[in-house]
Specification:
Blueprint lengths: L2 E4 L11 H9 L2 E4 L2 H10 L6 E3 L5 H13 L4 E3 L13 H9 L4 E4 L4 H9 L7 E5 L4 H11 L6 E5 L4 H11 L4 E6 L7 E6 H7 L8 E5 L8 H16 L4 H12 L3 H7 L2
Parallel strand pairs: 1-4, 1-5, 2-3, 2-4, 6-7
Antiparallel strand pairs: 7-10, 8-9, 8-10
Length: about 270
């Protein structure tokens, strides 16, 4: 039987897919980060399954044990506390080891905080970059912001609520006008998406919030060229003619096109 990598809800327990529920019902053993956390999901959907812990502290030892189970024909499902195992969660080692010895692996897709936050931010582009958990040290953060200054696509990252204020202050110091979205408690009762410039959002989160945080940083501003620039300027002019304040119109078009809001504002005066 293949190793089944199963995506689980990032908050709302109703977001689990039918395929994942069936796999969890059929599994001989379900590997999970926290058995108590996964039991809540299983109980919600009336599933009785044998749970086995699989986390960063026992991943190496468990991998050998699980490979033996798979070779004996057991049906094994792998879940994390939320989202898809292997994406900033345990699972990569086991998947790689199974493939290395020729055991089949199937992935059952589902909820993802990365894509959910990206769409909710409004910064969607043809490409984006996921950087996992942000570095902790101020120097490492500063280096990351310098690197991001040259990226014209959005960046998605995970951050702890405790470190969020310092992270936002660091970003604001590097680029106060950079658009950012803090996505908190996605799919849960108190879901919140706060958008604005880095300076504005840093002020909003001067104190650590509660809940899970996914941070989306918009792509850097591009210099306007040719017909694209003309179209962006025309779009601002149309919004102004419709009654929207010029600075707000420039901000909206800049977010949608990735162009410089200040340049748009100047060119439409």
């Amino acid at each position: 039987m293949p190793l089944a990598v199963c995506a689980t809800p990032i908050g709302n327990l109703e977001d689990v897919t039918l395929r994942v529920l069936e796999e969890l019902r059929s599994a001989d053993v379900v590997l999970c980060e926290d058995t108590r956390h996964t039991r809540v999901l299983l109980d919600r959907h009336a599933i009785s399954a044998r749970l086995l812990s699989y986390h960063e502290h026992n991943e190496a030892a468990r991998t050998a044990e699980v490979l033996a189970r798979l070779e004996q024909g057991e049906r094994v499902a792998l879940v994390s506390d939320a989202g898809l195992p292997g994406i900033s969660d345990p699972g990569t080692r086991l998947v790689g080891a199974a493939l290395e010895v020729g055991l089949p692996v199937t992935v059952l897709p589902g909820p993802s905080a990365v894509e959910t936050a990206l769409v909710a931010s409004g910064f969607v582009a043809d490409r984006y970059q996921f950087v996992g958990f942000l570095p902790r040290g101020p120097k490492a953060l500063s280096s990351l912001w310098q690197e991001l200054a040259h990226w014209d696509h959005p960046v998605v990252a995970f951050e702890s609520p405790r470190r969020l204020p310092a992270t936002l202050r660091s970003l604001a110091e590097a680029d106060a006008e950079r658009s950012v979205a803090v996505c908190r408690e996605l799919t849960k009762k108190f879901e919140e998406v706060v958008r604005g410039s880095a300076a504005e959002v840093a002020t909003r989160f001067a104190d650590p919030p509660k809940g899970e945080i996914t941070l989306v940083v918009a792509g850097g501003e591009r210099a306007m060229r040719g017909t694209d620039a003309d179209a962006a300027v025309a779009a601002v002019a149309e919004l102004v003619a419709a009654g929207l304040p010029r600075r707000r119109a420039a901000d909206v078009v800049a977010r949608l096109t990735g162009t410089s809001r200040n340049e748009l504002y100047r060119r439409t005066l």
